[in-house]
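Progress note, project year one: complex with fe (ii) ion.
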Amino acid sequence: MMQDKVLIVDDDPGIRSTISELIEELGYLCETASDGLDAVELLDSGPYLCVFTDIMMPNMSGLELIRKIKARDVSLPIIVITGYASLEIAIDAMKYGASDFISKPFKVKQIELMLNKVKREKDLVEENKRFSDTLQLHRLIDNLVGQIEDKNEELISLQAISEKIISMKGIRDLVGAIIDVSKQLLDEADVRFFPISRKHNTLIDPDGGKEILLEPGLLKGNIIRKNGSGKALTDKFETIFPLMIEGQVFGALDILTSSILGDDKESKILYLLDRSAERMENVALYEGLYENMLSTLNSMAKILDARDPHTSQHSTRVTSLSMAMGKALGLDEDDLDVLYIAASLHDIGKVGIPDHILLKPDGLTNEEFAVIKKHPDIGADILKPIPPMAKETEIIRHHHERYDGRGYPAGLKGKEIPYLSRIISLADSFDAMTSDRPYRDGMSIEKAVEEIERCKGSQFDPELAEIFIHHVALS
Ligand SMILES: [Fe+2]
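Model obtained:
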């Protein structure tokens, strides 16, 4: 296999050689550049697995280099080397698209974890590309089908398995799909999935019954077959398949049938579990990544709140008002998730607004207000490099639009404004009106409701405003 190549950019030769040595020890090839200009020239001799770069360098700074790299290849991960942990540098680098940070003293383990993550993310992207390519999928199925006798029947069920699996999002959905598909494959079977309890080495009964002792064979990855001799199962055959992820038992699929499972059915179930395990690894990794990013963003939101004590808790309150509104509207779970994140982070772009403007109590000049008005775009730019945040990005970008088109940044009008942005806008204004500021007390709820009433159709979506008043503000 070809060795992956890593590019290291730092004007300090000592740091260049320390990091190169560490990374070469881990089995990668290293190339080094002493500034951004050098690095840009080297990019042509890629592909690189990732780039480590310093920020303060002569000729071309690290931020400029990040911008240049992202313009050529958005997907190339960039890890910033910082001498000391600086929030400003971190936020700047993130805005430009850096994916991680490393600071002195460099630890081999830390670099190893970082590179493993980069590699897995790359594989994940490729894997997802492969899965989304239906042609590839059909080829895969055709190959499998070629090895099996009854082509028609197999084609239908294997295709069904694959399609079901690739359309799954979360682990819970996936377990549901495993049960569904098994039931389809085996008529009249009783199918249950037992997650494993690592603490007690037992299987957890999904129906809330007591824990079931784990067969030692199952732990080793063997299929357990019981032919009706079990106590309560006098006339049924029980087959238990382990679901293995990376060599570890993740749970067990328990199947009760009235006749013994044949080899062909067993092999279909095995195929199902194999594909599911593959997918679960990806989902777990993906969800993990997503959570990592969320926690980074949430700490940014906290930092923002800390800068301005008068608005601290604002994001939290806007989030709970928005969620109350989302529930009143009967939004589905996916939309509620998006709403939650977008509302929590709606003002994240204010990290890019200087203190002397952000913290000014009153009387902004036109120029200063123009700077404040950039925060929805800055926020959207921060989230843009994160693909699973695409919806949230647009919602945050438009949370200051007005229904009559006189808002910012895009001047969108009416239903052109994303639905969830219109919800956040109500929650945001209501909270701004009702909370205390250093220079004034908050309005009463009644007064704020009057204000919303007055601005129905101009600032706010009139239908949503009605619902907000009756089901959120006054309830
Ligand atoms: Fe805002």
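DSSP finds 19 helices and eleven strands in the chain.
The pocket of fe (ii) ion is lined by residues 346-347, 375, 399-400 (CB under 6 Å).
No further modelling is planned for this target in the current period.
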